[in-house]
Amino acid sequence: MFDSLKKELSRRALLHKAGYGFMGLGVTGVVGHIIKPVRTFAQAPSKEPSLPPEKKLGWAVVGLGKFATEQIMPSFAECKRSKLVALVSGDRPKAEKYAQQYGIDPKNIYNYQNYDSIRNNPEVDVIYIILPNGMHAEYSIRGAQAGKHIMCEKPMANTVEECQAMINAANKANRKLMIAYRAQYEPYNLATIQLAQSGKIGKLKSITSDHGRTLNPKDPADIWRMQKKLAGGGSLYDIGIYSLQAARYVTGEEPVAISAMMYSTPGDPRFREVEENVNFVLQFPSGVLANCTSSYGYSNTKRIQVFGSDAVLELDPATDYYKHRLVIKDKNGNQEQKIEEKNQFALEMDHLSESIMQNKQPKTPGEEGLQDVRLMQLIYEAARTGKTIKV
Ligand code: NAD
Predict the structure, then answer these.
(1) Considering the entire predicted model, what is its pTM?
(2) At what angle do helices 136-145 and 160-172 cross, to 10 degrees?
(3) 154 flagged as catalytic
(4) Is residue 274 located within the same domain as residue 293?
């Protein structure tokens, strides 16, 4: 079952090694400690057929929660290839309010029951699933079966089997499936990948990545995150996945061994079904070791550090929505790298629209999401058994 996945992942590792992971930022090098981005994914020249200048694909957003309404929907204004044309919600008045705000025709408002009839709407090319994690598989599969391309939020789904079913459904319908790993389209993270993989900080030795925040049981967006069925897992599935992703995209490698420990505060009602803290260590084929943490208990942290034989990169905040800071620490001291901030949500959405228009595989396809879910399951197993697991 994993043979095709393995092939795809070793292909990705090669592409990463070849610098593909940094395509699009076009860093010109460190000039006076300023990295100048010369182009972005959305503008990257390519050998693919050129795109019609004004063409935008129509997108439907499924689930009008916090992330959809506060980050994604406003970001369409900065898209060059994607426009918001439809909404799917269980709350009709809420959907009508947003339809009016974004100039969406009320006939393009769907609910979870009539969702499948979106197949008859030629204005919708892509469906963006922004529901609780436990609902990603069902709505992605129904969307693909309705003949639409799919963008799905992270984590891809609760289980490896669900991820595989999503990939199968997209393949069967001949539609694209992309996982919304925004950091892989974000200029500071791309610069970090490029610096780490280009030898600029010497030989890569170690990575640390920490993602944590305190889970708030009064926030409606955190209530389903306390329920295993809807969340799939605890802090690891929600934000530790950024630490895991960072270790994978900074090295461009896949881990070969995993060890982990897990701890939840006894008696804390937030952690009856899902875990609070997971610390895990990944070993990569090159010998790089990554120490990662994930927590629903410690204060807001989104950090990546990359340790090379000649210098250290510190990206903190690393995976914020709009604010990043990258510092190179070497024998000359600390040098902050200034890079133009870009709307990573617009970049990732346009990347999928362009991939569809040019009929090419998106950079973060379903297989990428499946690999993280598979690795997170192994991290849990390593923590449960206390054994180092060979991948
Ligand atoms: P949210 O609770 O604010 O939004 C979820 C939406 O789903 C709500 O509108 C809710 O009404 C709807 N919903 C439908 N059926 C539901 C049910 N049975 N139970 C609960 N809600 C139901 O959550 P959110 O923070 O917006 O997260 C949504 C998704 O987006 C998650 O998969 C999350 O991991 C992802 N997310 C990604 C990022 C990122 O940076 N990429 C950031 C935040 C959230």
Answers:
(1) 0.89
(2) 10
(3) yes
(4) yes
